[in-house]
């Protein structure tokens, strides 16, 4: 898929929005990207997963690991495209990412960590940490969208289908907050905590 095809697809389903948003990282941005809106369509998820997986064929992984919930669908589709298994990490009762549900990694198993959107890379870093803690070997990471414009460093080779330079700010540095505007909180971490 070309960059223009990806942008057009995301815009066609409303996955890219403008306004004033508090991201799940806690940072503020005038652009919100909700990949769930494109991934809800299996034909789009399959196409994006195949394209993203194609960026990592040379790594010869045997497993794709994704952080739940955002990376789950795209991770599964990347694994399908590569012909390997897909598992996910999720938060345990203490709030830490962990492998649960009987998922295991073999010692030294080559894994690819896949996420939907990178802002700070926090969930991907946590997932890489879990892979290593469980004895696997994270050899690369990927995402549909890198909001940092390619500046994100994750300590493994990393690629995204689409790099966007979308500024985000700490709340006390946010130009929209300084102008008196209030950020909305559209992310999934927030919606479950709201009544």
Which keywords apply here?
single chain, 195 residues, alpha/beta, Rossmann fold, six-stranded mixed sheet, two-stranded antiparallel ribbon, 7 helices, 30% helix, disordered C terminus
How would you explain this protein's 3D organization?
Helix 3 packs across helix 4. This protein has a single domain, classed as 3-Layer(aba) Sandwich (Rossmann fold), CATH 3.40.50. The strands form two sheets. The protein has a six-stranded mixed β-sheet with strand order 5-4-3-6-7-8, sandwiched between helices. A two-stranded antiparallel sheet has the order 1-2. It is globular, with a radius of gyration of 17 Å. The chain contains seven helices and eight strands; from the N terminus they run H-E-E-H-H-E-H-E-E-E-H-E-E-H-H. The protein is an alpha/beta fold and 195 residues long.
Low-confidence stretches: 189-195
Total number of distinct structural domains: 1
Order of helices and strands: HEEHHEHEEEHEEHH
Oligomer: single chain
CATH topology, anyone?
Rossmann fold
Task: Write the SSE topology.
Elements (H helix, E strand, L loop, with lengths): L2 H10 L3 E7 L5 E6 L2 H4 L2 H13 L8 E5 L4 H11 L2 E7 L5 E3 L10 E9 L3 H12 L3 E10 L11 E6 L11 H4 L9 H4 L4
Parallel strand pairs: 3-4, 3-6, 6-7, 7-8
Antiparallel strand pairs: 1-2, 4-5
Short description:
With 195 residues, this protein is of the alpha/beta class.
């Amino acid at each position: 898929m070309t960059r223009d095809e990806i942008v057009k697809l995301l815009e066609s389903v409303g996955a890219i929005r403008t306004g004033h948003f508090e991201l799940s990282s806690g940072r503020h941005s005038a652009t919100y990207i909700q990949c769930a809106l494109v991934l809800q369509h299996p034909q789009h998820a399959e196409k994006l997963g195949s394209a993203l997986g194609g960026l990592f064929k040379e790594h010869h992984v045997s497993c794709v690991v994704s952080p739940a919930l955002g990376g789950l669908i795209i991770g599964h589709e990347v694994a399908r495209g590569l012909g390997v298994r897909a598992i996910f990490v999720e938060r345990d009762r203490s709030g830490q990412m962990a492998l649960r549900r009987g998922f295991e990694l073999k010692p030294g198993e080559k894994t690819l960590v896949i996420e939907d959107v990178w802002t700070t890379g926090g969930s991907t870093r946590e997932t890489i940490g879990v892979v290593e803690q469980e004895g696997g070997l994270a050899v690369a990471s990927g995402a549909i969208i890198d909001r940092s414009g390619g500046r994100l460093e994750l300590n493994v080779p990393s690629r995204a289908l689409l790099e966007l330079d979308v500024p985000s700010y700490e709340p006390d540095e946010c130009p929209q907050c300084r102008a008196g505007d209030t950020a909305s909180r559209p992310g999934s971490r927030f919606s479950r905590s709201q009544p």
